[in-house]
Amino acid sequence: MRLAVIGAGAVGRSVVELAGEYGHEVVAVADSSSATVADGTGGRAGAGGDDAIGVDPDAVVARKAERGIVGDADPDDALSADYDVLVEATPTTLGDAEPGFTHVTAALERDRHAVLANKGPVAERFGDLRAAVDDSDGEIRFEATVGGAIPAVSTVEDIEPGHVTAVRGVLNGTANFILTRMAAEGLDYDHVLAEAQDLGVAEADPSFDVDGTDAALKCVILANVLSFGAVDDPADAREFTLADADVSGIRDVPGSALRLAAEDGRTVRLIGEATGETVRVAPRLVPENGTLAVSGTQNIVQIETSHAGRLNISGRGAGGPETASAVLGDVGRLE
Amino acid sequence: MSDRRDGAPETALDAEGAAGEPDPADSGASPDGGHASTAPSTHTVRLELVDEPGQLLAALHPIADNGGNLLSIYHERGNKTPRGRIPVEVDFEATPERFEEIVDALRSEGVNVMQAGTERYAEEVTILLFGHLIDTDLSDTLSRIEACESASVADVSLAAPQGTEEVSSARLRLEARAGETDAALAAVRELADEKELRVVEPLTGVDA
User: Which residues of B touch A248 (CB under 8 A)?
Assistant: First the structure.
């Protein structure tokens, strides 16, 4: 497949670097201010002139690192490049989910597929996306939006959403790292947050993670998958957005609460739960050595099914190559 | 249907009843004592059934027929009494007056009522509360949880490492009536909202 990768953060760059290994070619890459498009359609000045269709991944990554741009072309050139699958890996935005939403619909209007790593469009405008898909020969996939490397969405699809009663789990590695460290070391939130920021586990502004927003978006996406997947006519499905989620974060959880939990063989994890009817994210008491009490930045997704019992999948919920592997898995499913 | 209901339990359970096992129900049939309340409340009766088809259904009819609203049935199939009967715990809602009628009807049907009226807390949940627990009057918080119909506070542990005026945490073990854990947690949430406390709830129904 020929890929246009929109967004050149950790995930976008990893997709560019790894696509070849999965048998795909990257024909265009864009970040917010620049682009590079292969084969003379736009601006790979000084291109080698060989027969390779794709862009040179190493050159793109090097330019991004050295000059902060991916090429000399306009970002719109990447959107109009001749690709089979558009990979939307720009940062998640809420509300209208722009510009990610427009990128995806631009691909669908051209009857091309889109694979999202950006949670915004699938969490905030799922109904609009479904409508755009209905009018297109293209499909969308978004495994990378939930649980990084963990195949959460495709597992739910395999089981069939109508036979999944709930999906819950630990879906934010930053919050889980903080809770794990607080419980293990008896430290307070502020101390562990500073440590997480030094390690690059938490961002300078950690709100998105510690207030539960990121986990909530993932649960909203799962709720949409369950809701739309369980009905024949999308008009019968309930659409979820972040506004439908009941969210509380971990910012004010005191160390003393974790100690009291530990005395009783329990611990606290930021647990997200999605059904076809509700979305809830909150710190919850779980058994200290239980399945859901994953450590550090690990994530876990627990799927409750009607006929197959409970499934647990744990693994890395973030990271460039991990998330890129989910993106490229989706690309493979579209072949 | 009426044959099974009238016949089967009678012969089987009469024998059991005649054996004269202690029957605490006699002294405590009305949990509401002398209150003139006519509001329905939750009652638990413990029955013993013979391990034969139709027995459970037969035992439930007197409850439904006399205006009881069945809430839950805990059928301890693997757990037999020394005489080989199966204990069943039934929760239902009824007014105090109807409750007595139901117990009478069960007995007249020959169902062995082992225990009636004493509330049994079937479910246990542990929660954490944190915030300004002491400034917001912890004992009031606890007694208001106690006052809620669904739950009772079994155990409290408090941690106030920074003194009583700072944020402190408490671990509460609550006992809830069968099927009422959610209601108990909702009541705690509401109280916590009012006092600006935070609740960390367990994942109920998930043996993680």
Answer: 198
Distance from CA of A42 to the nearest CA of B (A): 54
Closest CA to A182 of A313, A273, A283: A283
Contact A237, A228 (CB under 8 A): yes
Same domain, B7 and B71: yes
How far does the CA of residue A279 sit from the closest CA of chain B (Å)? 14
Kind of pairing, strands A310-316 and B69-75?
Answer: unpaired
Q: Is the ipTM of this complex over 0.85?
A: no
Average pLDDT, chain A: 93
Query: How do residues B33-85 score in pLDDT, each as one tens digit?
Result: 444 456 777 888 888 888 888 888 888 888 989 888 888 888 766 777 766 78
B54 and B148 fall within a common domain: no
- On whether both B10 and B102 belong to a single domain, the answer is yes
Active site amino acids of A = 218
Per the model's pLDDT, the better-predicted residue between B4 and B127 turns out to be B127
Residues A29 and A54 placed together within one structural domain of the fold? yes
In this complex, do A255 and B161 lie within 8 Å of one another by their Cβ atoms?
yes
* Domain match, A240 and A267 both: yes
- B11 & B102 share domain: yes
CB contact (8 A) between residue B203 and residue A266: no
> Which structural domain, as residue segments, surrounds residue B65?
2-116
* Closest-CA distance of chain A to residue B200, Å: 5
Is residue B104 domain-shared with residue B135, that is, in the same domain? no
The amino acid that residue A237 corresponds to is: A
Separation between Cα atoms, residue B29 and residue B33, nearest integer Å: 9
**Chain B interface, best mutation among A284, A292, A310, A312, by max B CB count within 10 A:** A284
pLDDT in tens, A65-75: 999 999 999 99
B157 contact A CB<8A: yes
Which of A260, A265, A310 shows the shortest CA–CA distance to A288? A265
Q: Tell me if chain A has a CB within 8 Å of the CB of B159.
A: yes
Is there a single domain that holds both residue A20 and residue A112?
yes
pLDDT under 70: residue ranges of chain A = 39-52
Model confidence pLDDT, tens digit, residues B133-148? 988 888 899 988 888 7
CB contact under 8 A, B128 and A293: no
| A189 membership: H or E segment, kind and range | helix A189-199
